[in-house]
Amino acid sequence: MKLDLHYVDTRLVELYDRDNPRGIDTDFYLSLAAGINAKRIVDFGCGTGLLTCELAIEGRDIIGIDPSAAMLAVAQRKPNSERVQWIEGDSNALGKREADLAIMTGNVAQVFLDDIEWEETLQDLHATLHPGGYLAFESRNPLVRAWEKWVREDTLEETNTPFGLMECWLELASVKPGKVRFVAHNVFRATGEDVVVSSELRFRTETELSNSLIKAGFTIKHLYGDWHSGSFSEKSRLMIFIAQRD
Asked: Range of 220's domain?
């Protein structure tokens, strides 16, 4: 998998937590882990480790895995990072870990553009869980068409950063069935440099995601439409899946 520039450029990586701060999604996954009394947890696509390090309380075995060395470098500076086993790699680096819970936060599920790659990832996550273990992740609901707001006039922000004043915005590049391409502009005002990040996301439907989970050997236990465990509907912004390994 080729990594987008915002997972590689060290300046953008340093700013990642500013743009993606701790929120109610963190509380949701922490509550889930506590609710099933998970002792061994895999945070797949852990990024800068914001959730990973909060999961790493005494008595737990936490594995944080991500393909970006730059993101992991930030994660390893956080409190509790010494309690985490950090792995640079993708899902085939997981192996069999008899985990109680595997999670994918931050809409990580949408970076897998190819169906074969997505299916292989689910198979690897299935293998890393013990029978009865849980997989949890979220993905944007394509019926809401969130990408229609990914334009300059709706996303322009001007903020002070450790690198000086910055202007950031999104531009929608293309929309194809199930796939959306967009460009993020990151302008460093002091130099005028514009770090342009091109990204593409896969918007799978609820049916597509459900079928892929069943095919990989999971039973869907819950499908929520928000971080308060509300029921999913066509108008829900998110699809939050809790599935159990058969």
From this structure: 5-141+204-245
Assign 147 a pLDDT band (cuts: 50, 70, 90): very high
- Shared-domain flag, residues 191 and 69: no
Q: Clarify whether residues 229 and 114 are in a common domain.
A: yes
Q: What separation in angstroms does the CA of 72 have from each of 5, 16, 84?
A: 15, 12, 11
* Alpha-carbon span 119 to 206, nearest angstrom: 15
Residues 111, 202 contacting (CB under 8 angstroms): yes
Q: Where residue 1 falls among pLDDT bands split at 50, 70, 90?
A: low
Instruction: Output the CA–CA distances (angstroms, integers) from residue 145 to 126, 141, 149, 201, in the order listed.
Output: 30, 7, 8, 12
In angstroms, the first-to-last Cα distance of the chain is: 28
Q: Note whether 161 and 65 are same-domain residues.
A: no
Q: What is the pTM of this model?
A: 0.94
